[in-house]
Amino acid sequence: MTSTSTPLTSLTGTYTIDPAHSQIGFVARHAMVTKVRGAFNEFEGTGHFDGADPARSTVSVTIKTASIDTRNEQRDGHLRTNDFLDAPAYPEITFTSTGVEQLDDTHFRLTGDLTIKDVTKSLGIDFEYQGSATDPFGNQRVGFEGSVPISRKEYGITWNAALEGGGVLVGDKVVLEFEVSAIRQP
Questions:
Q1: Alpha-carbon distance 138 to 1, whole Å?
Q2: What is the CATH number of domain 8-184?
Q3: With bands split at pLDDT 50, 70 and 90, how would you rate the model's confidence at 5?
Q4: Which alpha helices (H) appear in 61-170, and where do they start and end?
Q5: All structural domains of the chain with their residue ranges
Q6: How far apart are alpha carbons 45 and 67 in whole angstroms?
């Protein structure tokens, strides 16, 4: 049974992100006319949720940079180079929370440090609690969805190409998207 009305205090515990049922993705503007969507296929994360005092909650996520997937191998290969993520030199993107604020019954702001290519910036990500459920294997799950825009230039990702009619090939703004299913640990 899925419910967003489950009391948050009953959800207190330590959770592990289930990568088979979660997605960490992104959207970037391409050629000024369309959006390219992609995801990272390898990541792990843990968190502790304190339902009585959400401000005491914590989250830590590690993403394998080389797992970037835009459904185009040539583009993915370019994104793994020093022009973009430089996966050989910087194999991981990390996020470590520094605070959690409950905005209302189902909305939270997760503040933390995002590190890409050894550049760390503090940011806030708004998440919506999607509910909780006990799966057929007896696991207690919670779901959250959120997104945040970032400037790729702020993380040292500056490669671009000018377009003949004006503008650039790759937009600076990238929206990171999170669809998380996490399992409570015993």
A1: 12
A2: 2.40.128.110
A3: low
A4: 73-79
A5: 8-184
A6: 15
Q: Is there a contact between 163 and 31 (Cβ–Cβ < 8 Å)?
A: yes
Please tell me the distance from the alpha carbon of residue 62 to that of residue 19, in angstroms, as a whole number: 12
In one letter, which amino acid is 136? P
Distance of CA 76 to the CA centre of its chain: 18
Q: Which long-range contacts (CB under 8 A, 24 or more apart) does 165-170 make?
A: 167/31, 167/32, 168/32, 169/30, 169/31, 170/28, 170/29, 170/30
The closest alpha carbon to 102, from 58, 59, 55, belongs to: 55
Q: Phi/psi of residue 39, each to 5°? A: -150, 165
What is the C-alpha to C-alpha distance for residues 123 and 2, in angstroms, rounded to an integer? Answer: 30
Closest-CA residue to 178 (of 151, 148, 145): 145
pLDDT tens profile 88-129: 999 999 999 999 999 998 999 999 999 999 999 999 999 999
pTM (whole model) above 0.90: yes
> Exposed, middle or buried: residue 157 (CB in 10 Å: 0-12, 13-18, 19+)?
buried
Among the ranges given (6-15, 41-50, 63-72), the one the predictor scored with the smallest mean pLDDT: 6-15
Return d(Cα 131, Cα 120) in angstroms, integer: 31
Contact assessment for residue 31 and residue 46, using Cβ atoms and an 8 Å cutoff: no
